């Protein structure tokens, strides 16, 4: 029995899927159907087709993103992709960047069928076939619609903002599968085209954080009153603030937008600021202490010197006065160290109490 070639049709319009399926089955293709970009990716991973017919505008994930993901993955990049879209003429020339083999505009069914068969035959002969100049087949008799153009302009504007903001944005469905990731999120938590889309969001984190993220996500989904939850995480020596926002949609199930803020640099700067404040307070206190100790130390040194001059070196009291003199001299050097504190260093004392490490905090060293 001859093995049938496999085709995947991806479109959220069931009538279009049925129409294309009928054409392909007459051409002896085994046809799979998908009604969203996420579903398409999962089916491609489970059973890679020989050709893909893909709509551009779909819920959860558009065909342009699906195509880009496939073309970046060595396992799937050679599968021919044919874009069939109702906004193809309004999107042209933007769709050129998608990387498909051919682009067909949705129009009258007889024209659409003719164009599908034309591209199909070309790709059967050469799977690397690309329609010349990325022309949109079937666009000759269609007129671009102003309202569609305006909606697409708004869409591209929002995408540009999401691509450029410093926060990571991840959209997640109710099964915790990733639908959308902006470039910042990919960079912050290391999401690649190989583990996105369809990956479970919490699995991108370490074992400990995975449990926390999954728990918070489930609590938000199950809580009908709550629309927002926030947690702080430390992941691979980075500090994150993760905010989950529940989003309601008119024509599809709720999704969750995760906003990821990398607070590593902010916390580092805050720590540095705190260290500066500590050092400033320590230096003020050290300068005050050194000043207040200077006068009594000067008097003490003078008194000890007088005692040494009057004491008989043969007597035991001279020995004790000499010990006092040595310790007074050492105290003078410690005061000079305190006066010369330039950094904030601590060390543990008895009972785990932290005290200022004068030796490592001062620029003056006692020899």
Protein model, in words:
The structure is a single chain. By secondary structure, the chain is α/β, with parallel strands linked by helices. The chain has 3 domains: 5-137, Response regulator (Rossmann fold), CATH 3.40.50.2300; 165-260, PAS domain (Beta-Lactamase); 267-361, Helix Hairpins, CATH 1.10.287. The chain is 47% helix and 19% strand. The chain contains 11 helices and 13 strands. The protein has helices spanning 14-26, 37-46, 63-72, 88-91, 109-125, 146-164, 183-189, 207-222, 264-310, 316-339, 358-361; strands spanning 5-10, 29-34, 51-54, 81-85, 102-105, 136-137, 168-172, 178-181, 228-235, 238-247, 255-262, 346-348, 354-356. The strands form 3 sheets. Strands 2-1-3-4-5-6 form a 6-stranded parallel beta sheet. Strand 12 and strand 13 (354-356) form a beta hairpin. Helix 2 packs parallel to helix 3 (63-72). The protein is rod-shaped and about 125 Å long. 26% of the residues are buried. The model has no long low-confidence stretch (mean pLDDT 84).
Write the layout of secondary structure elements.
Elements: E1 5-10, H1 14-26, E2 29-34, H2 37-46, E3 51-54, H3 63-72, E4 81-85, H4 88-91, E5 102-105, H5 109-125, E6 136-137, H6 146-164, E7 168-172, E8 178-181, H7 183-189, H8 207-222, E9 228-235, E10 238-247, E11 255-262, H9 264-310, H10 316-339, E12 346-348, E13 354-356, H11 358-361
Parallel strand pairs: 1-2, 1-3, 3-4, 4-5, 5-6
Antiparallel strand pairs: 7-8, 7-11, 9-10, 10-11, 12-13
